[in-house]
Amino acid sequence: MVMRMRSKGFERIGSHSHITGLGLKGKEAMPVGDGLVGQTEARKAAGIVVDMVKKGKFAGRAILLAGPPGTGKTAIAVGIAKELGRDVPFVSISGSEIYSSEMKKTEFLMQALRKAIGVRIHEMRKIYEGEVTKLDVQSVPHPYNPYQQIPKSATLALKTKDEEKEFRVDETFAQYLLQQNVEVGDVVQIDADSGRIVKLGKTEEAIKKEGIDLHTKEAVELPEGSIAKEKEFVYVLTLHELDVATSRRGSFFTIFFGGKEDITQETRQEVEEMVRKWVDDGKAEIIPGVLFIDEVHMLDIEAFAFLNRALESELAPIIILASNRGMARIRGTEIESPHGVPLDFIDRSLIITTRPYTKEEIRKILEIRMAEEKIKMEDDALEYLTEIGEKTSLRYAVQLMAPAHNIAGGNKKKKIGIEDIKEAEMLFADVKRSMKYLKEHEKIML
Ligand SMILES: Nc1ncnc2c1ncn2[C@@H]1O[C@H](COP(=O)(O)OP(=O)(O)OP(=O)(O)O)[C@@H](O)[C@H]1O
Ligand SMILES: [Mg+2]
Asked: Which of 173, 276, 335, 390 is the most buried (most CB within 10 A)?
């Protein structure tokens, strides 16, 4: 059996999986493109930001995506990440996460910032190179969570114009293949010593076979010669990965599977000096990426002070904040500020607003999600779901699709009917309704 990376058990279909870019044509946003619908001004603005980032003209600045719930703020951030390309790191956190981890708030933020800065390294290495022609991942249930499958080993076949070979790889490497989302048709380079994999892209043939639009994906040539070769190997590590590797003094390969260790300030300085030297010697380039922070009103004044300082340092990523609040108290203070963000931080941010969708836009987005989730629906059901999206939120309407599909499937139907949507709506509440319910029953609940 060929285990595709996006198959169940490895990665759930995220609610933004339909987004492949910002849907731009030149500088303008197409009405529909790359899975995105409407919100053209915000997308155009986001495109300008991407352009500036790529040209290295945005470091140390921040963006604030502001708009009501379910208006596509996270969707646009995902679009930005896709537009930036695979080498540009994109780290996504939610404001509340800084409190839930075992780490100090500032340490958590520091690591997030350093994960968002890439270092592209050029080195002569012994590598294996070729197109993946076969990928079988053998998996077993997770020892502590039988509902989750984890890879045990894998068989991988590579081919060049002149050679084809099959490899059997162990658990660690199989996991790595999954993390990198390697698929049949990808042209990959694997570093013989570390096992590091770099995906170069898909061959033209593979793209055609999958029916992916050739305009959106760039094809790469099938490599020539033998699979094993000595070659300049170009790969990207983040500052955080270098921090971890340096504090362990282990091989880079352990970076991806290890537990947590304290990284000292000295280690970070050492890494920065090392990277600067590589850059001076022409062996590396720095790629500032993006740190996306959702629910930004959850950050407190200390976190903002820390981020403010971080933005001033020489090695800083672009920070994108998202907020669905208006005036809000800055956590840790009694001060009210727009979006709960201190004014000095707002001062250095460009603000992009998102607006509520029209009914037609909601319908179109739901259609795209249907295609993504391989769900079919009667016309009146889609109309009803669209109305739900209008009345409550787009996010709720998107989320109802899966249970409605399940209900319809239970009734042995191929298409979701209006009654299936109604049943799903009754069984699963949207946020407003659940809050209202809790209010009404507060006395009994407490
Ligand atoms: N313009 C769009 N085109 C296509 N899909 C979209 C668009 N806007 C939003 N979506 C999809 O609709 C759902 C809700 O949008 P999203 O989560 O991005 O909203 P949000 O503004 O981040 O909301 P919140 O304030 O609640 O975090 C997601 O599944 C998202 O991918
Ligand atoms: Mg969001």
From this structure: 173
